[in-house]
Queue: 2 jobs
Job 1
Amino acid sequence: MPRDIQLLIGGEAGQGLVTIGQLLSKALVRAGYEVFVSQSYHSRIRGGHNTYAIRLGEGPFFAPRESIDILVALNAETVELHREQLTGWALLIADSAFDPDLPGTISVPFAELGPEPLWNTAALALLGNILGLSLEPLYQAVEAMLGKKHPEALAENREIMEKSRVWAEAHVPEHDFALAGGSPVADRLLLNGNEAIALGALAGGLKFCAFYPMTPATSIVLELIAHAETMGCVFEQAEDEIAAVNMAIGAAFAGAPSMVATSGGGFALMAEGVSLAAMTETPVLIVVAQRPGPATGMPTRTEQADLEFVLHAGHGEFPRAIFAPGSIEACYQLTQKALALAELSQSPVFLLTDQFLADSARPVAPFDPTAIVPVRAGAEPDTAVTPYQRYRFTDDGLSPRLLPGLSTHLVVADSDEHDEEGHISEDHGVRIGMVEKRLRKFALLQQEAIAPELNGEKGADLLLVCWGSGQGPVQEAVAVLRDAGRSVAMLHFSQVWPLVPAQFLDILQASGKVVCVEGNATGQFARLIQRETCFAMPSRIARYDGLPFTARYILARLEKLIAVEARP
Amino acid sequence: MPRDIQLLIGGEAGQGLVTIGQLLSKALVRAGYEVFVSQSYHSRIRGGHNTYAIRLGEGPFFAPRESIDILVALNAETVELHREQLTGWALLIADSAFDPDLPGTISVPFAELGPEPLWNTAALALLGNILGLSLEPLYQAVEAMLGKKHPEALAENREIMEKSRVWAEAHVPEHDFALAGGSPVADRLLLNGNEAIALGALAGGLKFCAFYPMTPATSIVLELIAHAETMGCVFEQAEDEIAAVNMAIGAAFAGAPSMVATSGGGFALMAEGVSLAAMTETPVLIVVAQRPGPATGMPTRTEQADLEFVLHAGHGEFPRAIFAPGSIEACYQLTQKALALAELSQSPVFLLTDQFLADSARPVAPFDPTAIVPVRAGAEPDTAVTPYQRYRFTDDGLSPRLLPGLSTHLVVADSDEHDEEGHISEDHGVRIGMVEKRLRKFALLQQEAIAPELNGEKGADLLLVCWGSGQGPVQEAVAVLRDAGRSVAMLHFSQVWPLVPAQFLDILQASGKVVCVEGNATGQFARLIQRETCFAMPSRIARYDGLPFTARYILARLEKLIAVEARP
Amino acid sequence: MTSIEDYGKYETAWCPGCGNFGILNALKHALVACELAPHQVLLVSGIGQAAKAPHYLKANVFNGLHGRSLPVAIGAKLANPELTVIAESGDGCMYGEGGNHFLAALRRNLNLTILAHDNRVYALTKGQASPTSEQGFVTKTQPHGAFAASFNPVAVAVTMGASFVARGYAGMPEHLAGLIAQAIKHRGTALVDILQPCVSFNKVNTFQWYKEHCYELADDYDPTDHAQALGTALEFGERIPLGVIYAMEKPLFEEQFAVLKNGPLARQEVSREGLRQVMQGYV
Amino acid sequence: MTSIEDYGKYETAWCPGCGNFGILNALKHALVACELAPHQVLLVSGIGQAAKAPHYLKANVFNGLHGRSLPVAIGAKLANPELTVIAESGDGCMYGEGGNHFLAALRRNLNLTILAHDNRVYALTKGQASPTSEQGFVTKTQPHGAFAASFNPVAVAVTMGASFVARGYAGMPEHLAGLIAQAIKHRGTALVDILQPCVSFNKVNTFQWYKEHCYELADDYDPTDHAQALGTALEFGERIPLGVIYAMEKPLFEEQFAVLKNGPLARQEVSREGLRQVMQGYV
Ligand SMILES: Cc1ncc(C[n+]2csc(CCOP(=O)(O)OP(=O)(O)O)c2C)c(N)n1
Ligand SMILES: Cc1ncc(C[n+]2csc(CCOP(=O)(O)OP(=O)(O)O)c2C)c(N)n1
Ligand code: SF4
Ligand code: SF4
Ligand SMILES: [Mg+2]
Ligand SMILES: [Mg+2]
């Protein structure tokens, strides 16, 4: 059984390539294989060039691969765009109408197999045949998709699938892609990053979400809305992002664990709201799904260039925490943690993701729904000292947060500088007290900070530093280098603020060469590390063309940087 | 003649204390004296406690003083609030109605001198008498103010002024505040920071300003509007700050040198627009007049806590420049420079000021209106290569900027990533080219960067580092320390980004102790220096109670820091 | 029973003679008339002179950002529908900076009340034109007079089919208290635009001016007649009608959400069983 | 003379069958009818499918941020009043994210044109409800149907006394070209709300649906009658009127500024003498 097959389906938006991909990956996961799904698409509804890539086999896989073993070309352009990536042993599935005349081409007479709307399922059956999957799990996936809404279409789908299998058995040339019989693993979830964030939010006790649609954040909200009724969540599409964040703050003030999700441009409009949350000490989770900027930039592509902006957004000074999950599991876990920390610290808390992670799917072990510890908003009213003061000075900066209307205590919150009761104050002594009270909460955030994860040995010759979605590709690059006998380690930050040097500075200092890998042009995280520790990382691997990191990309750059020989 | 007299007029908003102060300072400046005017007020229209302070004498003065030599108390509260600040030799002018019974009190029977609306001019005459000014320049100031609008009121004002002088000659106790005969200096302008910014903008060629009112930025716009007709400027009060910045960008695109002026909260709403200006490479000047945050904070007070926000505002990556004038002259000069640099670099450029600088007035030598070099927007159409490409790739990143409608060339600007023509592009190669093109402009900004100013010797035992409005107070503290025989220098940054370490790092390294003085709680500039140079400045003097630095404040903190003996 | 004393007495930062005093007074009386205790009420304001009002009576308060009272109010109401939520701010806040939220709020129809202290000027920032300033209103930022047409929030609200639209006047606090009480009791989003003299910055629309121009709608005026309401709403010049200009019943926005029938979200448990089902969907 | 060819032909990123094609076509014809050369025209758009339109014809273009076409257009017009400025974007852009600018622009009355491609959905982000979506419009983000009342931009514009308000339909490009030409020629802010089928995300308001519901205003319809216009504007359901619904003459915003009589600001010198006088005021 081949260890690692990269399959790519390419075509125009609207040709249904996502459907083929989803059905196939679902079937593969159920059959016990590993997959890593990644997507690439244009900012348009029809046309353009989109791809759905599935890396599959023994895995586990944590990143896409650049070379392609099986290419499904739904149009001629796909062949042109990807021919360079084809491996020597690649198969190319294309309609006989535009037979590309490349070695490995399987020229399929789709028109003979059935009517055009069914070609997707035909391709699915063909792929199943090549991968050695039996028809049943594939058909079940089709059934699960169509079953409720279009039962009438089941029969014809079944028919074309069977036809296609027969055709494949007769026409597919010899190849080495048949998977060994997988052993089904029970209950694995096939999740992409945004789905995992949505699940994490629900598990964490989210009760309110306001949003304004923006790629690549919208799908988080779509997932939440799909489950809102089951989970008792309230949501609202706001008139703009300013309204969204202010609604979330209002809801959080009144006791609903709340979030917003947006991308850089929408977040820019929320900056004043961030400052409001900080001043009023209202917990709110702000998810920023990054895409390349500035301005509208490349709406459907990926980048990690909003770190410094998110870290400093909002006027005035106040503490915050920023999580940057690197895996599907981390998306789920850290969203819960972020919601809890927002409530605990009565502050805005951020989760930074990006289009790459948002659209990357992987099977994960099932999460235990009974193990969750959902946020409970506010303190118990009967614990409050009378007269109740929302902003009472305390040693740790945390004042008892009561919820308005849930007791006879009156809760007063103010965006102006305020006294302990929450009323406007222009007193300079009060001002000093309140500034220091708010900043004292930073200690809590530091204490709660998640240490970066060291993969490998402290003191390795080479240390690759990364954050957020860089984890998977860097991990793979590290594995390749290790296989080639190099002493190499990875330090991945899934929380990028606060940084607690005691958690990692010795690792940086103990390493031979340190290279920072991040998806932006100017090296924002490297600069932040330098600011906080004076540890300089002049060696950087940057990517800012809108595409995600891959092991190959990293290794090629590394080669330039330090003449590394090993390649994937 | 006393070298240094601090006079403070205190009372409620609406009592007219600003009028007394302005008339007196105008008369003093015309008479050839030095003044430094500072103002403090509450966020309300009537009531509260406001002050107008004039430091006067030989000067020049660059900061207010905390102790008071002459207090004019328009109400009893003023006495209570300021009694601790009175020097041993202070005079206190108060209405006999609330005779405060303190040494030095001049209990004035205002009601006997004239009707209440005229008490301001009465107080003015009294003050003139104490300072040894003749009545004439004071009366001229009153005339200049009332002349056009209320000529009918002149006679009664003159009458009460004369009455008051007579009363003063009979009742003012002996004192040492009479100024020696000043020698009038021709044509000096009495300007506060915001007025100087407005003048600088006009001199720099500003043609368009859009704004939404926000303290302490509004007065910049008020000055501009007052002169708009004379200078041929177009202005508009926008419906919100988002509209303001987008209007400015639209106007700049179409060829009007443009600016916006706001404070932190309003600026937060402009963050997306900043990113737009960067992406479309549209020059725009953004003035941020800081006040204490977060959120609404203290609307009429001062702080320097928006540096990091302004430096990182806007999603995505792009170069920018940030000026932070420290004096009235610098407000005038740097606003011109900022406008010019915006056009030169086709980028957003920032000017950071704050309430302290905004409301501080000082006489300055006249500026030469013929020496200006106003911005000329856009390149000449006939220099353009055909087909014209707004975003042509060039070595320095600067593409020829034509203006729409002024030639038959078509100008296409886009907030999406775009090709050289300005049309939307999703090509990854183009993306890389455009990212790098935009970032190349940073070299120009570095090259144009203003070096920090070293006051004193390189290698001094003590170096005080400051930026923006910190200049005046720090300069005075340095002078005091020098008088006490200490080896001390000041390094003032009037441009805080880009930082060019070659311009200052050796100075930092050569100094004994380095202390960073800045008006925020977390040490933002110190952190930035560390980020850029790895030079750490753990010794900091911070202020975040909403009040400006004074030499006394700095020296007291320094004493704690390094046991300095000297005090002002 | 709640009494007016329960709502407390505070020192204010307003100018003597300001129209805001009448509005504050009317609001307190309306709350008492609605038999609401302070802890049942949430006042949400923005920034401005008007927006300080919530600090001057006893209630739960969220004094947020300039222009943003409505989205905060909506969020709070959706988190706890049992709260009586009142968004209270100035004309600049509601119709200027917050104009987009105003439109969206009227379209939604949550059960909340909007009180706009409409002094037709930006007062706290010292007198710039607001959206409701008269054309030609001269200020330091509009030295030749405001050019833009004056915004008529009442007419726009009626046009949009808002479910309760009224105009009150700060100089008639009793009448105003009645309007506010009706607005609070109305099931839906209720707008009360309140004409408010600003003695410091609006020397045109003074108490005297309003006295000369305002009239109360006749007792037999039918606020459910949309066409008539539109005509009445557009009447704003020589004569200015006061009263409930338009009122109708519409479904409440919050009724979309079944979960809100169970009361405040803060008190609802997260269903592990629900979560299990949701997760199962990804298998 | 300008011809339709001068405006070029481009490949688009739109779906085959989209209503945007008809609008693009109508716009080109209107520009030709107005005898404008491409370099005299500035198209300003936001972000969305509609907002891509300016990339598909020859003209000066500023394709800015989602929701912000109007302020950019206003700024540009105030910098160079000689430009023919057209703000063109989708319903989400104009009435959703940009709602506050829409209100403010109508109040100002600059000499510019607003073209709203009103497909009653957020198309580029894959089909969420927009302000003009019908109540009950089902999407993935509005699974129980849009709850909020549908925004009627035409009615609000007429209520506010905007100086030119029209409704067109993408399926009638010739009629639409006529409307757009009138809007461009109108001295003042001219709104053309353009009903636009979106074949991918709006399966309710289709070409067929519009065909069944739209009608052209009668030739003798008098667009200067405000009361009648208001009634006509509010008609939006079974029957939807197309044409110029309201039109009147009002002073132009830009006429406030004497300097603009001299043409583009970019070509005006800074007066040293003026500056000297200004400085003298501070002595
Ligand atoms: C984002 C933002 N922009 C501007 C301001 C400054 N500001 C404070 S109050 C105000 C105007 C208030 O006008 P209005 O809402 O009519 O209230 P009023 O003072 O007249 O009662 C403005 C512009 C602010 N606080 N925040
Ligand atoms: C600030 C911001 N928020 C959200 C988006 C995402 N966005 C892009 S287009 C769009 C909706 C477009 O709807 P509409 O204006 O009606 O245009 P259409 O695509 O329907 O033609 C949204 C929400 C964005 N680009 N910027
Ligand atoms: S400025 Fe106007 S609105 Fe504000 S308190 Fe004074 S009178 Fe009232
Ligand atoms: S999604 Fe709709 S609006 Fe966009 S191009 Fe396709 S049909 Fe047109
Ligand atoms: Mg007002
Ligand atoms: Mg649309």
Job 2
Amino acid sequence: MPASSPRLLRGAINGQRLLAEVASNAAGANVLFLGTTRGVTDGVATQALEYEAHEPMAVAALETLRNEAMERFGLLGCRIEHRLGVVAVGEASVAIATSAAHRREAFAAAEWLMEKIKANVPIWKCELGPDGGRGWVHPDAMPGGFP
Amino acid sequence: MPASSPRLLRGAINGQRLLAEVASNAAGANVLFLGTTRGVTDGVATQALEYEAHEPMAVAALETLRNEAMERFGLLGCRIEHRLGVVAVGEASVAIATSAAHRREAFAAAEWLMEKIKANVPIWKCELGPDGGRGWVHPDAMPGGFP
Amino acid sequence: MTIHPPAATPPPLSPTHQLRVKLFAGLAAAASTRLLELPWGGGTAAELKAAVAAAVPAAAALVSSSGVAVGNQYIAPDATIPPEADVALIPPVSGG
Amino acid sequence: MTIHPPAATPPPLSPTHQLRVKLFAGLAAAASTRLLELPWGGGTAAELKAAVAAAVPAAAALVSSSGVAVGNQYIAPDATIPPEADVALIPPVSGG
């Protein structure tokens, strides 16, 4: 698997390293997105989030999305990482780094990837409440577009 | 001037520090944009870029834009830095870090700020060619909206 | 006399053949397992979902809104699931 | 008999009063200076641009597409420039 392939990891995400990995002398624009655990969502306190994935399927889906983003937006570089396990408030659960000649493509690709990851990639979050409560998050929408 | 105020600086931009400065337990989304010097633009080789500014006016304009972005996009944090002097190929000339509860606002604010900075803030770049040639860049459009 | 069936035709599956279905997140919590074993005589993805819902009634609603994957790919509701398939039920995702 | 003009009326500027105009980037390069001194009897931003273009013909085209700032603010073409103003010509910007 190439070094640029998406990764699921249990340690902390290093955004600075991802930016360095997408750097290019042909790039005028570099975007790093970090999705972080909020301490409060819709008025409910969160102690931490816990993530799990269908790992081989998630890695394959992320690789497919990365390749599509590289082509669709003419990117020069693209790195995707997603945490698994417990992610404390303030820590990053997902990171996307993109580079392109111009900023529109770098921004659009990072946003597009986040939309697709949240809609299609088999990764799930569990809310860990301050009282020890656990709740898996399953939006109403169907994954994969099948009714 | 508050620590969150925009800065013009002659040393390297530290994107990681800017992200740390916009971090918040209420943030679910953090975006860092780095505009970097391209080695080639429209087929012409660039050795480096050199930036200058009407410094007090540029800092005031950036502060006004930052305050407007904070309000318009409901940001939790926003930092802006722009280099002055010579910026080598691959180095960042401008950095914007935003944080918000949700990603749409964090992305939109960073894009909006870059549009406004490029259109209105009195900063100029000079292309330094490999043969020692220099050329100030002045787009056809008028600054400040005055014909 | 010995009858040799055509080599290309596999023997019919016993209805007690066990299919192993990977479960995740709320489905695994509801079923109290990450790997559900089901008697499986063959059928479609939609039929598999019905069989899982019958085996784990507490997860029926979440099963009905789940997709089915074989290997690393989602499959359509009318696609057939081979007996030895690497099958997973994919409840609505929430990564990011 | 001595005539006292009303106190609120400043004495008329000598036409040889010097206004200092900050120049940047291509304007500074064309004028070979970052601070242009101009005889200035008062007038609008548009009149200042005409005076700068006349003083630095090599920069005339760029001056015509420049804005005028007093202090940290752009001013409109018909706005008056006070004699001691902190004036700058702002050619089209290219930061970022």
